[in-house]
Amino acid sequence: MNITKNLLIAIILIIFSTIVSAQETSSIQLKKIAEITIGLNHFPSDSEKKELSEIMSNESLSDNVRILAHALFNVKHNVTDTDKKE
């Protein structure tokens, strides 16, 4: 019984740490997107586009975070009509 309880606790801790790690990664990437947006001057710079590309290709992030990075990547004075629909 004690082994089963300890195993269950270990599994819950592993799952929890995975979820927290994923949320922290999303938070860091969302902060980066916000920083780029705040400093935006008509369109993202080449270095900002590189950062946004990395976010867009990161499969561990949520679709919403990657869509937001994609929309910001495509900004040229305005968000494109296609990105407005996403």
* Parts with pLDDT < 50 across at least 5 consecutive residues: none
- The count of helical stretches stands at 4
Biggest sheet overview:
none
Which descriptor suits the 3D outline? elongated
Mean pLDDT value:
77
Strand pairing plus helix content: what structural class? mainly alpha
Order of helices and strands: HHHH
Count of domain modules:
1
The proportion of residues in beta strands is under 5%
Radius of gyration: 18 Å
The helicity comes to over 70%
Distance between the termini: 50 Å
> What is the number of E strands?
0
Summarize the structure.
The chain contains 4 helices and no strands. The protein is mostly helical.
Textual characterization of the structure:
By secondary structure, this protein is mainly α. The chain has one domain. The protein is built from four helices and no strands. Helix 1 (2-38) runs antiparallel to helix 2 (46-56) and helix 1 (2-38) runs parallel beside helix 3. The longest helix has 37 residues, at 2-38.
Strands, helices and their partners?
Blueprint: H1 2-38, H2 46-56, H3 63-73, H4 81-85
Key attributes of the depicted protein:
mainly alpha; 86 residues
